[in-house]
Amino acid sequence: MTKTFTGVSKAPADGGKQFLRVKSVTEHFPGLKTFVFEADGVHTEKLAPQRAGNYIAITADAGESRVTRAYTLASSPKEAEGGIYISTVKKAGILSSRLVDGLRVGDVIEASRPDGKFVYDPARDCAHIVGVAGGAGITSMLSMAKAAEEGSEPYSMTLFFCVQNAYEFLFKDVLDGMRSGRVRVVYVVENDAPEWAESGVFTRELLHRYVGEECTLFACGGDALYRHIAGELAGDGLVRNMKFSANSVTDREDEEGRVFTLTVHLAGRKYAIPARAAETVMVAMERAGLAALSQCRVGECGFCRSVVLGGAFTAHPAHDKRSEEDKAAGIIHPCCTYPESDMDIVVPADPAAEVL
Ligand code: FES
Fold first, then answer.
1. Is the entire prediction scored with pTM above 0.90?
2. Is 295 near ligand 1, meaning CB less than 6 Å away?
């Protein structure tokens, strides 16, 4: 057994899990902190490699539940190789609030290896990339900028960092210290822009003023920003392709307040738990304290891949990444699936957790 800040894990670090110690904490404003993590030196000797744009999934006990949430990394591949991951956490939701309020230097947490599809692909993407970061969405963009600066990724980058008020610029000292010539940062402020920033929001005109070559656009900052960019750049010949960082799957509207019975087969046992139509099957299992396996929470990694024995469901249209073969075989990703009736499912157990 390993006791950590975020709970008790029965398994030491294996190929998929790491134990990370908090090396330092910086509070930017109330409710927003940056954590620097290192290997705990007991179960994890050396951090797993990280690519620019990756996340780690942190698993924790929260009340009666055991939950996993993905956090994007602001560190670069070379920083990870040198022994640290950096992540900024905003107080929102059960696990993030627990981390922001209670995680201290020296505490140990349980986390996944870095993973994710929000990364540069030389076969798909242009040699010049444009990053658009909205507020705290700077974390993964900072990771990508650092990678260009240190030469661990081959692209050059123009980064548009967009906020409402100038005090919201995080890591400005780090960005201003980039001198390789491979990264250009354009600060964009909606209200009372200082002289060193552009006034307003990201626009097609702003893009063309700063970027003169074909590019791939990466954006991180939420659905409103993505809709704005897609509308602004529709049909634009300068941008070859765009990639938006995935948001977590949230509750949906269900005015009838429907509640179904979810029968879960997990680690050789059977549980009957309530599942609200408004929430994903994964959230229902977490609320019931079941240690089902998850990682990305947005339908990408396949860690939560489960088999439906009976019942109706709806997969979130933007996050349903299942193959046609999986769909035909009755496979779902509980992290992005909502119940439409009583359901009976077989789910993989988290090997690092105690089964209740
Ligand atoms: S947790 Fe990654 S697909 Fe469900």
1. no
2. yes
